[in-house]
Amino acid sequence: MCAIIDANAASEVFGSNRPEAGVKFFDWFYAGKGRLFIGGQLLEELNRTPVREWARQGLNSGWLRKVPDNDVNAKTQQIRDEGQCRSDDPHVLALAVVSGARLLYSNDADLQQDFKDKNLIDNPRGKVYSTREATSFQQSHARLLQRKDLCRP
Amino acid sequence: MDSVTLKNFRCFREEQTARLAPLTLLVGENSTGKTSFMAMIRALWDVAYRHRAPDFKEEPYDLGSFDEIAHHRGGRGGRTRAFEAGFEVAPTVPKDAPGGADRRPYRFDTTFECVGTAPHPVKLRVSRNGTSAESWLMDDVWGGQCQTPTNQWAYVPGASGVRVGDDVLLVSPYYLTEINLFPRVPEPSSDEMELIRELLVGFYGHTIGRPYASAPVRSRPRRTYDPARVSRDPEGDYIPMYLASTYFQESQTWAGLQEALVRFGRAAGLFDEIAIKPLGKRNTEPFQITVRKGGNRVKGPPRNLIDVGYGVSQVLPLITELLRPDAPSMFLLQQPEVHLHPSAQAALGTLFCQVASRRRKLVVETHSDHLLDRVRMDVRDGKTRLKPEDVSILFFERGDLEVNIHALRIDQEGNILDAPPSYRRFFMQETRRSLGL
Questions:
Q1: What's the mean pLDDT in A105-123?
Q2: E strand or H helix that includes residue B384
Q3: CA–CA min distance B171, chain A (Å)
Q4: Are the beta carbons of A31 and B436 separated by less than 8 Å?
Q5: Do B431 and A57 touch (CB under 8 A)?
Q6: What angle do CA A34, A36, A38 make, to 5 degrees?
Q7: Would you say residue B414 has pLDDT above 60?
């Protein structure tokens, strides 16, 4: 399973004061069930979050995957030029398109809408893991982490 | 060798095949069979190309007698009565060969049984594309059989024993086309014999040199060396003599080697100059090895090898062996990073990336993250001719009584692919704990 974490939500997964849903998300790839993708502008943003402490271990262990910055940046520009994106995070959408990751951990309403937009992300459609409505670990969270089809084939 | 297969050998129970790339890194906890794996690579070479039973106690490995080497299944299973190993090797195809040239690999397999107290190869098999030649030994009697897509025939065992003195003679399949001593049943056609001849000439015709196996701890430096033997040994005892001999007798080779050593010394932060200091006028007299570290403005004094950090004398045999012009075509290196600072470990990773190729394969057992990281980065950043597929990471994972080998890959971005969840579990736990999560 392939996931992306929005920089604004990174501390919920890697920080010291995490909600239950964030802890479970962490446990999910800590158990080797998920892969986290980074690259482009999001890499720079995550570098200012607690993800940084895990970067080397993640890359060496194989659960953190780096995507070519040039590819992500080019796609970001394309999404921006096409003007279909509501949020100010086209780089996150670009990373999903380039890497094939289809699960996003984010609490940004606009980005969530964009990520689920079939015109922006498809085959398979994007899914969002969020703590906007509940910080506890819900059935909806569990179902997302159990899916095995959230990577582009 | 492009891959190695093991079964019932030491801690490897199930048949497992591990790919050997130009640069193969063996990683995993202690006592997971990494050294045994390397010992088998050399043993296979001895059986296949030296036509002799391997010495599993030859330095730098000491795997013990058959009882220590054959896999113990535990409980009632006891110890297995035989173990198997093999390898694949790609044919030598000229660069200008047409695209349709047959590049399918040759395969060599052998079975070991206990003879006396030591493992002895009792079955040898060379095969490719449905054609095979096999020789075997049973109760001191030699026999064999060949197979082509159209026929199969046996060499009726001779009644005479093949024990020579205390040694059991190893009859290579190579001789199957040469020996007319024993009847062939049924008699093959000349075309079928030609297929077998092509198989054997192809396999034995491009023998690679014997792998060089280094010891995990290299010899201690001495203040003064006396010229002596220059033949290779696992601890690198001979390296000072080799350096002096090159210095005295082959000035051009010495200049090239010295430059390469200094390049590594600088990259690793170990030394900026290396020199041979003769203590007499003739090359038969004692000599010293000195290194010098340069400051920003002034050079430091030349210092004897014994007076600088242990890391220098430990790594010197390895880098010399890797950089000398007549370097072996295969290296088996155990923990080359010992005594080195992380920056020097990383520089060693870069050196491996520069030296490794399809013609010079490196199999490196390491516990160094710095070395592994540097390899990943150099491949990703194009600082080496190695492509991602030229690097193989073999993760040795211990189960209850056996070990599994996981083949990991790296991609263009230096990402580690195909890692099982257990890979680097310890490091993850330590990071989690250190961050208080």
A1: 95
A2: none
A3: 46
A4: no
A5: yes
A6: 170
A7: yes
Contacts within 8 Å (CB) and 24+ apart, B17-22:
B18/B392, B18/B394, B18/B405, B18/B407, B19/B392, B19/B407, B20/B361, B20/B363, B20/B392, B21/B361, B21/B389, B21/B390, B21/B391, B21/B392, B22/B356, B22/B357, B22/B358, B22/B360, B22/B361, B22/B362, B22/B386, B22/B390, B22/B391
pLDDT digits (tens, 9 = 90+) for A31-77: 888 899 999 999 999 988 888 888 888 899 899 999 999 999 999 99
- A96 to chain B, minimum CA–CA distance in Å? 16
Note the pTM of the prediction, 2 decimals. 0.90
Q: How many CB atoms lie within 10 A of CB B229?
A: 10
Give me the phi and psi of A147, to 5 degrees please: -70, 145
Token pair 């080497």 is at which residue?
B69
Average pLDDT over residues B335-339: 95
- Per-residue pLDDT, averaged over B204-230, amounts to 84
Q: Are B63 and B10 in contact (CB under 8 A)?
A: yes
pLDDT score of A112: 96
Pair B28, B43: CB distance under 8 Å? no
Helices assigned H by DSSP within A3-149 = 10-14, 20-30, 40-46, 51-61, 69-82, 90-99, 109-116, 139-146
User: Looking at the complex, does the CB of residue A30 fall below 8 Å from at least one CB of chain B?
Assistant: yes
pLDDT above 70: residue B2: yes
Cβ of A52 under 8 Å from any chain B Cβ?
Answer: no
Q: Which residue of A has its CA nearest to B418?
A: A62
Bridge partners (DSSP) of residue A104 are A4, A128
CA distance B420 to A70: 29
Angle between helices B342-355 and B251-268 (to 10 degrees): 140
* Contact yes or no for A50 and B419 at CB 8 A: no
Q: Best residue in B408, B409, B437 to probe A by mutation, most A CBs within 10 Å?
A: B437
CA distances, B274 to each of A1, B240, B243, B282, B348 (Å):
52, 12, 10, 20, 18
Exposure letters B16-41 (e unless 16+ CB within 10 A, then b)? bebbbbbbbbbbbeeebbbbbbbbbb
| A54 with B431: Cβ contact below 8 A | yes
Pairwise CB contact (< 8 Å): B421 & A33: yes
Given the cut 0.85, state whether the ipTM is greater than it.
no
pLDDT category at B159 given cuts 50, 70, 90 is: very low
Mean pLDDT of A112-127: 94
